[in-house]
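User:
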Amino acid sequence: MPLHPVLLEKLNAALVPGPPPVFTRRDARLPEVPGKAHAVTGMRRAGKTTFLRQLQAACRESLPPERAVFVSFDDDRLAELAVDQLSLLLEEYYRRHPELRGRETVHWFLDEIQLVAGWERFVRRVLDSERAEIVVSGSSARMLSREVHTSLRGRGMETVIGPFSFREFLRHRGEEPEQEARRWTAA
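Assistant: Predicted structure:
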């Protein structure tokens, strides 16, 4: 079975280096835990996709662009996508970059992955068999904290993205305070 043409189109776009998009920096951070998939969850329109793009841009500051791959599954042309297409996507990537397989860590940013039934098995297999860091995002009930831990069988770490904090709101407006945030004010 060939790779879905829309996935091929998305892979082609993901491997073309370009200037990073300009977004307001978020204060959220991913825990550094090797061998774990990172699940970015949160309410709709909170900025999960933007956060994944920021993570990809940060990776591309220190790595070649082909080692930080962003793929969004939020596309009506990918409705009812079979999970085996994820394996075909991975194989197509390594067909283009065979020098990376088993030698270099590739960072995968898979946006709205919950739209592909069975994605959890794919992520577990890639974590077990490839040199990869995987960040997934989604906002459906399947991406709730307990579901992420259950479906990834202990291989998932969750980061919740909410709406802008007040500091992020000020940053977005160009008015971020110069002082670091403090819990208590001086007496």
